[in-house]
Every structure is written in C-alpha cells, then in structure tokens.
Design a protein that fits this description.
The protein has two domains: 38 residues; 278 residues, SGNH hydrolase (Rossmann fold, 3-Layer(aba) Sandwich), CATH 3.40.50.1110. It has 14 helices and ten strands. The protein has a five-stranded parallel β-sheet, sandwiched between helices. It has a three-stranded antiparallel β-sheet with strand order 2-3-4, with no helix packed on it. Helix 5 crosses helix 14, helix 6 runs parallel beside helix 10 and helix 10 packs parallel to helix 12.
Length: 392
C-alpha cells in the first residue's frame, strides 16, 4: 500500500543501505575466494602439486602417547570369557605410545621390543604382570644386567601394522632385539579381505584425508562437527544405542560388516604365503638395521575337542563367515606352523608359545588372550629363551 504521499514503503535493503553494501561485498568476496581456490587447485593439480591437507598418510595404528587412563572390559568380553574380571585396568603410555611400565636406563645393556596385537599388549592384565614388562625384570634378575623391555602391542593390529611401527617407531629406539607375535588378526583380515591392504577405515594401511570433501550439505557439516567437537559424546551415544537397540544399530567400527553372514571361500595357500612374506619382511628389516629378530607362535585354546566357551566363540565366527569350525582351527594352526617354518628357513629364534603354554583356561581367559597366570608363565618361558641375547 502506498503511503500518504503516494510512495511505496521502503524495503529492508533500502532502509539499511550500509548493511546491504556490506552483504554484497561479503558475497562477492566469498564467490571470488571460491573461484580463486578452484582455479588454483586446477593449476596446481595440472603441475602435480598436492597440498599438505590433501595428502594421504600411512596409518600408524598405535596407542596414543602420553595417556594415563583405564580400560574396562565390555560386557560381551566378560560373558564369553573364563574368569575375566570386569574392572578398570590401567593403561599408560610414554611419549612414543609404548605401554608403561618398563625399566628405562640411559645406557641399557640390552633393549627388547615386543610387537603384536592385543595378545602382546595384554591390556586386561594388571600392568605390572604384562609379560613384556616381566621379561625385562626376569632377565635382569638372571643376568645382573640393565634390561629395557618395551611393550609395543596394539589391539587389532596385524603384521602389516607392526611393520609400520617397526619402521617408524622402533628403529629409532635402536633396540638390540625385536620380538614379534602375530596370528589371529592376520588370519581374520586375510579371510575377510583377502589382502593386508584393506579399504576398511579402522585398519586400512593408508588414511585419506579427502574424506570430508566427498560429503555434501548437512552430511558434511554434521560429520565435521561430530569428529571435531563431540567425538567422545558421539562414541558414548553409539555405545548406548547398541545397548538399547542391540543389533538393530549398525556399528560403524565393524570393518568386516560388509561380508559378515556371507559364505566365504579361503585360498589357504595364498593367505599363508601372504603371512610368510610379512614375517620374512620383518626379519629382513631387522637385519638390515642390525637388530636381532625373534618370532613367537601364538598361544591358544584351539583343541581337537574345544571346551564349550571356545567352541561357542568359533561357532560365532562360523556363523559370520561360513567357514566350519574344523577348517578355521586348521588355518590357525597353519599360521603358527608358518611362523616355525619361516624362522627355520631364516635361522631366526622361534619361541613356540603355542606348544609351550597349555591350552587351558588356567592360563587364558578366552581363546587367545592370557590371564595373569598365563602372562607370568609366558614371561618365564620367553626370558629363558632370550637369556643368550644378554651381554656376558
């Protein structure tokens, strides 16, 4: 409606000329900035120039440095175990992400590093009873020497992840010997993915930081906000949702979700060959850096007639993969045998824990994880076999 003088009322832009000019300047600057970015990106990529924020990275799967926290076993792990106590287990690391404690000397007489997955880390054993730490103490008592024994185990890691840790974290420590134990994580990864170079986000060998560029709209904003500002709240909410809704909630951390429930076929010769090549690579890297390599077979409770707890765990894997219980146990035994053969072929000490530690719930709270008594026994067996490495 026109006013009394016959003029139309002014709109917002006419009433606020300064704000309007500022708004258009901002829009023009944003458009110019975006256009310049796209132009420069095209020019840079034409000349093979990749910016730091666009690079891909080797996935160093480690426990975070400088932490002092506790880890409580989840309900499922306690239910499926024989005697695993649901309580806080202390987890501490040094500046390099190596598990504490260990005896640190300015000039040790012998430095050992243990590489592997959760069976080496022994998170659900009191820190003073984890076998990598105990090995150092026992060797010091037997030899009278200053022994540093470092635990570099990381839950979920396979031998490819350990090779990355060896190259980027352990070699700079200048150890005298590195002891590596792998089996089940390698076996499961090769069964599900048929390769170590998986695209699964949590265990992939390469991290691609262009992830957010592939998202658009609200999905991009919500994902960025989640990962930058509320990652812990998001994780807690996901755990709570799983408890409330059970299997109806998809677990984004389940890297094998895309193949679970499918009937899988296994090329046994191929996956054992892949495993052996990683073991040989470990040996060759150590020797090239004047480090003594040591291999260990993996203790376990896979017997011809497994007890009910173990059988239930293997049957769960059978339901996920379609691989019969007997075939899986044969594959697992084949991986331990591969460790023995690679050690023999390369003149490397193999500590055969699979043969030395009884397949009994007395020493393991589930199919492959040591309890306190098992960790103490492992430390005794390992220290006896490593004693010749100590200087006289």
């Amino acid at each position: 409606m026109a006013d009394q003088q016959g003029q139309s009322p002014q709109n917002w832009f006419e009433r606020h000329p300064k704000q309007t000019i500022g708004f258009f300047i901002v829009v023009v600057l944003l458009a110019a900035t975006y256009g310049a970015e796209k132009l420069l990106a095209s020019i840079n990529h034409t000349h093979n120039l990749v910016l730091f924020t666009e690079r891909r990275y080797i996935n160093l799967r480690e426990i975070l440095p400088h932490i002092d926290t506790v880890d409580v076993p989840p309900d499922r792990a306690v239910r499926e175990s024989d005697g695993l106590v649901r309580k806080p287990y202390r987890v501490r690391t040094d500046a390099q992400g190596f598990l504490l404690p260990y005896n640190r000397y300015e000039k040790p007489d012998l430095t050992l590093v243990f590489l592997g997955g959760s069976t080496v880390a022994c998170i659900y054993v009191e820190e003073e009873n984890r076998f990598p730490y105990l090995v150092g103490n026992l060797l010091a008592q037997k030899t009278g020497k200053k022994i540093t024994s470092i635990n570099s185990g990381v839950g979920g890691n396979n031998s490819l992840h350990s090779l990355d840790i060896l190259l980027n974290k352990i070699i700079p420590v200048r150890p005298d010997a590195v002891v590596m134990m792998h089996n089940i994580n390698d076996l499961v990864a090769l069964i599900y993915d048929r390769t170590y170079w998986s695209k699964n986000p949590t265990r992939a060998a390469i991290v691609n930081f262009s992830f957010y560029k592939n998202l658009t709209g609200l999905k991009a904003l919500s994902t960025l906000a989640r990962d930058l500002y509320i990652p812990n709240l998001h994780a807690a909410t996901r755990v709570l949702s799983k408890k409330i809704f059970g299997k109806k909630v998809k677990d984004p951390d389940d890297e094998f979700a895309h193949v679970r429930g499918q009937k899988l076929t296994v090329d046994q010769a191929h996956i054992i060959d892949e495993f052996q090549m990683n073991l040989t690579t470990f040996i060759n890297i150590c020797r090239a850096r004047r480090i003594t390599p040591v291999l260990m077979t993996q203790f376990n409770r896979y017997q011809a007639n497994p007890d009910p707890k173990v059988l239930k765990a293997i049957q769960g894997f059978e339901a996920d993969s379609g691989i019969p219980v007997r075939e899986f146990m044969e594959l697992y035994a084949g991986f331990n045998q591969a460790i023995r053969e690679v050690g023999k072929q390369n003149g490397v000490l193999v500590i055969d824990l699979a043969a030395l530690i009884p397949q009994d719930q007395k020493y393991m709270y589930d199919v492959v994880h040591l309890n306190t008594q098992g960790s103490q026994l492992a430390a005794q067996l390992i220290s006896e076999r490593l004693q010749p490495l100590a200087p006289r």
